[in-house]
Design brief:
alpha/beta; Molybdenum Cofactor Biosythetic Enzyme, Chain A; 6-stranded mixed β-sheet; two-stranded antiparallel sheet; Molybdenum cofactor biosynthesis protein B
């Protein structure tokens, strides 16, 4: 659906991710979406610093994201779950207030691609993303399909230093500019 161009003359630069599953029912052992993200991240040549699971609770979500954002070794935080419309879905409410810069384009592209796989049901997601300090944060829906869509259609390429015409790896050294 989207045009991708990988410039093999550029070196691949791995970055470090953390993956947070937001769920009242999952554990680290039963979190299949977080496990899938870890598998895809590592399969692309990146590192996963840590995976965790927290309940659908604003303070718990914000606390874990904040801890990872403050960790100097983590470049990207991915959350999965809590982006729907049920009363317990509070991931955007927990994370968005911490954004220094919103990434509205992520939600647009995610929904555009997701509509090709699940049709109008894509509207039931409040996927969001932004920058907290120098850490990229993406809040994905909790389904394996949504995590696969986000990774395969968008994130895999934006975190590939060989992706042209531009990618997040090129921007990372400039995130502290004022």
């Amino acid at each position: 659906m989207f045009p991708y161009k990988i410039d093999e003359s550029h070196p691949f630069v791995p970055v470090t991710f953390a993956v947070l599953a937001v769920s009242d029912t999952r554990t680290l052992e039963t979190d299949t979406s977080g496990a899938l993200l870890k598998e895809m991240i590592e399969g692309a040549g990146h590192r996963v610093f840590e995976r965790a699971v927290v309940k659908d609770d604003r303070e718990a979500i914000a606390g874990q994201v904040r801890a990872w954002v403050e960790a100097p070794d983590i470049d990207v935080v991915l959350t999965t779950g809590g982006t729907g419309f049920s009363g317990r879905d509070v991931t955007p409410e927990a994370v968005e207030p911490m954004f220094d810069k919103r990434m509205d384009g992520f939600s647009v592209l995610f929904h555009q691609y997701s509509a090709t796989t699940i049709g109008t049901s894509s509207i039931q997601s409040r996927a969001t993303a932004g920058l907290i300090g120098t850490t990229f944060v993406f809040c994905l829906p909790g389904s394996r399909g949504a995590c696969r869509d986000a990774w395969e259609a968008i994130l895999k390429y934006q975190f590939d230093s060989r992706h042209a015409p531009c990618n997040f790896i090129e921007v990372m050294p400039r995130l502290t500019e004022r």
